[in-house]
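Recap from last week: sequence in, structure out.
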Amino acid sequence: MAVRKLGVRDIDALYRTLSRDVGLAPSTVCQIHNILTGSLDQAVRWGWRTDNPAKLATLPSIRAAEVRPPSPADVVAAIAMADLEFSTFLRLSAAVGGRRGEVSALRWTNIDLVAGELVIAKALVEKADRTIIEKDTKTHQARRVAIDAGTVAALRAWRAEVERRAEIVGVDVQRDGFLFGPTADGSAPWRPFHWTSAWRRLREKAGIDPKVRLHDLRYFAATRLLDAGIPVKTVSGRLGHARPATTLNVYAHFIPASDCLAADAMGEILSGGPPSTEKG
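Predicted structure tokens:
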């Protein structure tokens, strides 16, 4: 179809076909819509059209998935039951709220055990042919995250074990080697799906709800931080969200009603409470 002849009804029909006949998820259809909208914007700039019909198209509604983070007891039990490598991976994932690919991509040069912080700069992605590529994070930005003393201790223990294994086979741990991987020198990482498979086995062993995914450790980190009263901007930075608004959209219902303090203060003022200390 010629670009100039494309109408809103044509685009609506496409979206219906993709949703009903092809069976694409609403979020996928919306991604296609974004591409089409951008393309038609360019067509307008080039003078091929005077309007963008995609902007008037009807999109499928996206129902936000309910966030169900695992309980602290489940997380602690899983970490306790896992082997040293996997328990370190789980502890780190829960502590920083990192995505599976981000934690998989961590190298020893990203870790500062003295300062108690790490830098999340890359993510591993497994392609359909099972090859692994290293790319930027989802927001294309590196982030520096503080880690607690317990997680630092876990990393120190894992580093000692890594060096012990390397010594046994007579190799040196590469300075920029991966934290987790099948090689003694850290030259290669585990496939991201390796951790998902390990989690499923551990979940069954620990008696954790089958619906709890490895990715839910990220939800665990976010919800517990918000529940502890940590500012949304700080939580957003640790999670690697592009904007605090993203954190609010997903986790708003987990934020305590801290504005009760504001309500109490206003109530006291309206009740003839202590006079204002402002200078005016």
